[in-house]
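Deliverable D5.2: sample structural annotation.
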Amino acid sequence: MLPVLLGLAATPAPATPTPAAPAAFTHPGVLVSRAQLDFVRTKVNSGAQPWKSAYDQMMGSSYASLSRTAKPRSVVECGPYSNPNLGCTDEREDAIAAYTDALAWYLTQDDRYAKKAIELMDAWSATITNHTNSNAPLQTGWAGSSWSRAAELIKSTYTSWPNAGRFATMLRNVYLSKIIGGSNSNGNWELVMMEAAVGISVFLDDQSSYDSAMARYRNRVAAYVYLSSDGSLPKTVPGSGLNTRDQIVSYWQGQGTFMTGLTQETCRDFVHTGYGIASIADVAETSRIQGQDLYGTDVGERLRQALGFQSKYQLGAAVPSNLCGGKLTLGLGPVTEVGFNALNTRLGIAMANTQTLTEQQRPAGTNNLFVEWQTLTHASNPN
C-alpha cells in the first residue's frame, strides 16, 4: 500500500509557449516540401531503391486510380468502432486518394492526376456540412490530415484550381472548427486532431490557429510519451482532470510502472500507439518545413524514445512482467519513416531497433486512415 501516492498530484505538462507561426508560410509545406519531392522524383526516375518500389506500390494502389468516383456526403456520421459508418470510410479514402493523386501529379507531371485530385476535393467541398456522432473529432482529424496535404500540394504546384477558395472554406468551417479545441480522449485523438489543424492552418495561412494547434500539440506530446526525467508519474495535459496517481495509471491502461519510451497507449495496443507516434512525427516535420525544427527539442527526444521502445518489442523482444502484465498487442503499422529519417538521416542519431523495423517494413504503404506512402516521401531524404 502506498497511501501517500493515492492523492499525489500529477505534474501537468508545461503550457509551452510555442514560437509564433512564421511571418509567411512555406508552400508546399504540409508534411512534404518541394525540395523533398524533387529529391524523390530524381530517385524514382533513376530507378533507385527503396523509392522506385514505393512509387510502384502507390501507383498500383486503388487510391491512384484515375477511374475513382468521389462519394461525398453532406453529413458524415461516425460512431464508436465504426458503428454507424455513414460516409466515414468513403471520406477517408477519398482524402487519401486526393493526396495520392497530388503526389502522383508532382512526381510524374501528368496533369490527369492533378485534375483527379481536384475532382475529388471539389466533390466534397460542394457537399459536406458536418461530422456527427462520438467519433466525429477523430474522423475529422484523420480526413483533415490527408485533405490538407492534398490541397497544399495542388494549390502550390498546379496552375489552376478554380474552387480552391471553396475548399478552404470547407476546411475552416467543417474541419478546423471541430478539432482546434482538442480532446481529452486517448492521446492519439488529440495528436491527429492537431496534425490536421496544423496542416489546415498552413493551407489557410492562418497564424493564430497554427499557434493554438502547435501549443496544444506540444503539451500532448509531453503527456503521451514518458521520459524518466518526468519524475515518478507521466506529465498530464492541463485541464485533463487527471489529478491522482490512480487516475493516471487508469488512463495509461493500468500500467503503473513507467519507463522511458512508454506511451499512454502502449498497453492498449501498438496499433493506436502507432497512430500517436505518426502524428508526433508528422507535425514535427511540418513545423520544420515552416522554420521551427522541433527534432532537437523535447519533442524529438520523446519521439526517438517512443520509436525505439515500440520498435524493440515489435521486433520480438521478450516482454518483462512489469510491462503491460507481460503481454503486448503488437501491430505498430507503417509509422516510423518520418521520425526515423529526421533523427537518423538528418541528425545522425543511431537508432538500431527503429532502423531494423523501418527497413523490414519497406515500402511502407498506407494504414487506410491518415498515414500514406512515407517510404516514398521520407526514406533517406536529406531535405
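Annotation notes: The first helix runs from residue 3 to 6. The radius of gyration is 20 Å.
The annotation will be released with the project's public dataset once the embargo ends.
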